[in-house]
Write a structure and sequence with these properties.
Radius of gyration: 24 Å
Strand content: 5-15%
Order of helices and strands: EEEHHHHHHHHH
CATH architecture of the largest domain: Alpha Horseshoe
Distance between the termini: 75 Å
Largest sheet: 3 strands, antiparallel
Number of helices: 9
Structural class: mainly alpha
Number of strands: 3
Length: about 250
C-alpha cells in the first residue's frame, strides 16, 4: 500500500508567516481539521479530544482526573491528599497542547464558539493543576501560558458577540479579559510585566479599534451633540437636544 502523503499537499504550500488550516470530511464522514506544518500536517477531530482518543473511557485525560478527584472525595469525604504528580502533569500538558493547536485552528476558521470552548477548557486544566499539583514547579509549566490563553478566550468570546454587532458587550468582554490578565500579574507580584505584556497590548489596541470604528447610534450622536452644546454654552440647542433624547427614551 502506498502511504505517501505528498498528494495531500498539492496546491497547499506551507507559509511560515501564516497559519494554514482547512476543514475536510474524513473517511468516517465526520468533519476534521488539518493544520499545515513545514514537514506535514496535524489532523484533528472537531469535537472531543483532538486526536480522537478516549483515555480510560473518558473524553480526555482532564475528565479522567476530574473523575478520580470525585471518587476520592466520595471515598474520603474530602479532597485533601488528592494530588497530581509530575508524570500526570506532563500528560495533562501534552493533552493541553493538542487543544492549543485546535483552538488556534478553529479561531482562524472563524469557528469562535468551539474556540471559546477549547480555550475555556485549557484554563480549567490550569486551575485544576494549580489546585492539586504536588510540586509547585510543575504548575509553572501551565501558568506561563495563562495570559495568552485568557487573551485567546477573550478574543473568541468577543468575536461571537461582534458577529451580532453587539459592540457594547464586545468592549465589556475585552475589558474583563484585560483585568483578568492584570490581576494575574498582580497576584504573582509581577506588576512590571503588565507594561510589556503583548496580550494586554493587543487587547487594548483591539478595544480602541472597536470603540473608534463602531457605528454610532442616534442616542449616542445626540448625547455627543448635547455635550458640545453645553460646552459652547448654546443652551437653546442643548434644550432641543434634551427634548429629542427624552423622546428616544420614551
Amino acid at each position: 500500500m502506498n502511504k505517501d502523503i505528498t498528494d495531500i499537499f498539492e496546491g497547499w504550500e506551507y507559509k511560515p508567516t501564516e497559519i494554514s488550516v482547512r476543514k475536510i470530511i474524513g473517511k468516517d464522514g465526520k468533519g476534521k481539521i488539518q493544520l499545515r506544518l513545514d514537514l506535514g500536517l496535524l489532523q484533528m477531530e472537531i469535537d472531543g479530544r483532538p486526536d480522537g482518543k478516549r483515555p480510560h473511557g473518558h473524553e480526555s485525560l482532564f475528565e479522567y482526573y476530574k473523575s478520580l478527584l470525585k471518587n476520592h472525595i466520595k471515598k474520603c469525604g474530602t479532597e485533601e491528599n488528592f494530588t497530581l504528580d509530575s508524570e500526570e502533569c506532563f500528560k495533562l500538558h501534552h493533552e493541553a497542547v493538542q487543544y492549543y493547536h485546535r483552538y488556534l485552528s478553529l479561531f482562524h476558521l472563524e469557528d469562535f464558539k468551539r474556540a471559546e470552548r477549547d480555550t475555556k477548557r485549557n484554563l480549567g486544566v490550569f486551575d485544576f493543576v494549580k489546585m492539586y499539583v504536588a510540586n509547585d514547579e510543575d504548575a509553572l509549566i501551565f501558568e506561563q501560558y495563562r495570559p495568552y490563553v485568557i487573551m485567546m478566550n477573550t478574543r473568541a468570546k468577543c468575536s461571537l458577540v461582534l458577529e451580532r454587532k453587539d459592540y457594547e458587550n464586545a468592549l465589556k468582554i475585552i475589558k474583563i479579559g484585560i483585568r483578568a490578565i492584570e490581576n494575574l500579574y498582580i497576584e504573582n507580584g509581577e506588576e512590571k510585566l503588565m507594561e510589556t505584556s503583548r496580550e494586554i497590548e493587543f487587547l487594548n489596541q483591539w478595544y480602541k479599534n472597536i470603540k473608534d470604528t463602531r457605528p454610532v447610534s442616534l442616542k449616542q450622536k445626540l448625547e455627543r451633540e448635547l455635550k458640545k452644546a453645553v460646552e459652547d454654552q448654546d443652551y437653546e440647542r442643548a434644550a432641543e437636544l434634551r427634548d429629542e433624547l427624552k423622546k428616544i427614551k420614551e
